[in-house]
């Protein structure tokens, strides 16, 4: 197959013709690397190069730097590429301060970075809203700098975003109980540009390529973590992977007209709960997790009135899932099965078997349907 005909996530990204950008997590990692290097050597690397989870090595120019005897600060301006991201152009700063040996890496929320105040998020209450993958990226780069320049790696990282509290009002953070500013996000370090028409066209091309290659099993994935899950589960080749993103309806409607033998849909539990509730566009601006709907599913799974009320009042879909898990109610499987049935309804009898896999943020399977 020629390089132009190849399918999969990378081909879809290329086909959109849009310029990717960098996540706040990547920017914070670059700022951390530059600041810690300066703290140990007296000089800021500019540009500073980091390694992303998939091996890319982008370089970032410094927009701010400050070195004192006890700490160093570096700032990176976030470039979201062609994505209409509210944080595009924001200045992400990290101040690094040495800690006593054995303290490890400690995260602090500076101005413009939120603090978690409600359960149900991937961080404990009271923690700075620096998500798990960016934390690991920052820890890894602290360790690399320490090895190179003879540091201990025991540091305090205070992450801040200029005007972050104001920007956060345009996000879901206040509703989720993340107060005081933005979250530092990202699982790959790369912002995938968002264009409805380009992305839907790339999905269609992905289906066409898979069919031309004789694939009888394809997977619609909401992101890179779900893609890894279906590859681990089924060993699917790259050209059988459709980067569905939020466009579940686009996948289902095109596969209805251009059938494949089997379609697996894999994504985060909360996102696929929207599909289960009948939404075909899973973007947060156009559909939300309906906790009342989840409470109804929980009742079907054996939840009593008290548990159903807790689910309906949960802060997030993850919190609802955790409540049901503790009570032995298989909410993940119920969401997956209901989402599968919604997908079958959209397919309108097309000769396509469907199964659905729900995962958490770490990629652990938390619910799945049978194939129907």
Question: What does this 3D model show about the protein?
Answer:
- One of its GO terms (molecular function) is cobalt-precorrin-5B C1-methyltransferase activity.
- InterPro entries: CbiD (IPR002748), CbiD_sf (IPR036074).
- Pathway: Cofactor biosynthesis; adenosylcobalamin biosynthesis; cob(II)yrinate a,c-diamide from sirohydrochlorin (anaerobic route): step 6/10.
- This protein is α/β, with parallel strands linked by helices and 372 residues long.
- Helices cover 39% and strands 20% of the residues.
- Strand 14, helix 7 and strand 15 form a beta-alpha-beta unit.
- Helix 11 runs antiparallel to helix 12.
- 46% of the residues are buried.
- The N terminus is likely disordered.
SS element count, helices: 13
Average pLDDT over all residues: 90
Range of helix content: 25-40%
Total domains: 2
Major sheet: order of its strands? 4-5-6-10-7
What is the CATH C level class of the largest domain, in words? Answer: Alpha Beta
Report the CATH topology name of the largest domain.
CbiD-like
Structural class: alpha/beta
Low-confidence stretches: 1-5
Describe the sheet with the most strands.
5 strands, mixed
Quick one: overall form?
globular
Cα separation of the termini: 32 Å
At the fourth level of CATH, the homologous superfamily of the largest domain is CbiD-like
Measured on Cα atoms, how large is the radius of gyration? 22 Å
Query: Architecture of the largest domain in CATH?
Result: 2-Layer Sandwich
Number of strands: 18
State which percent range the strand residues make up: 15-25%
């Amino acid at each position: 197959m020629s390089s132009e005909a190849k399918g999969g996530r990378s081909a879809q990204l290329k086909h959109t013709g849009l310029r990717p950008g960098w996540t706040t997590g990547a920017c914070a990692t670059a700022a951390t690397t530059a600041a810690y290097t300066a703290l140990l050597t007296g000089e800021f690397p500019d540009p500073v190069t980091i390694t992303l989870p998939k091996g890319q090595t982008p370089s970032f120019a410094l927009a701010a730097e400050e070195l004192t005897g006890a700490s160093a600060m570096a700032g990176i301006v976030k470039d979201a590429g062609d994505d209409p991201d509210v944080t595009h152009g924001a200045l992400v700063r990290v101040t690094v301060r040495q800690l006593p040996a054995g303290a490890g890496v400690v995260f602090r929320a500076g101005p413009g970075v939120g603090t978690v105040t409600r359960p149900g998020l991937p961080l404990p209450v009271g923690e700075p809203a620096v998500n798990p993958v960016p934390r690991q990226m920052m820890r890894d780069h602290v360790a690399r700098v320490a090895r190179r320049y003879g540091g201990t790696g025991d540091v305090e990282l205070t992450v801040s975003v200029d005007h972050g509290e104001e920007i956060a009002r345009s996000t879901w953070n206040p509703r989720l109980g993340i107060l005081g500013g933005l979250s530092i996000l990202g699982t790959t370090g790369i912002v995938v540009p968002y264009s409805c028409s380009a992305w839907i066209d790339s999905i269609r091309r992905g289906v066409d390529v898979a069919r031309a290659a004789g694939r009888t099993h394809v997977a619609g994935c909401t992101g890179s973590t779900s893609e890894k899950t279906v590859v681990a589960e089924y060993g699917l080749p790259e050209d059988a992977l459709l980067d569905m993103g939020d466009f579940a309806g686009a996948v289902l409607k095109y596969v209805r007209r251009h059938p494949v033998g089997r379609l697996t849909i894999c994504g985060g539990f909360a996102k696929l709960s929207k599909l289960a509730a009948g939404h075909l566009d899973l973007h947060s601006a156009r559909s939300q997790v309906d906790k009342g709907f989840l409470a109804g599913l929980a009742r079907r799974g054996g939840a009593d009135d008290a548990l159903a009320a807790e689910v309906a009042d949960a802060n997030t879909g993850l919190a609802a899932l955790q409540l049901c898990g503790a009570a032995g109610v298989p909410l993940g499987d119920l969401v997956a099965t209901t989402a599968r049935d919604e997908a079958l309804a959209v397919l309108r009898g097309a000769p396509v078997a469907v199964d659905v896999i729900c995962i958490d943020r770490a990629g652990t399977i938390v619910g799945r349907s049978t194939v129907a």
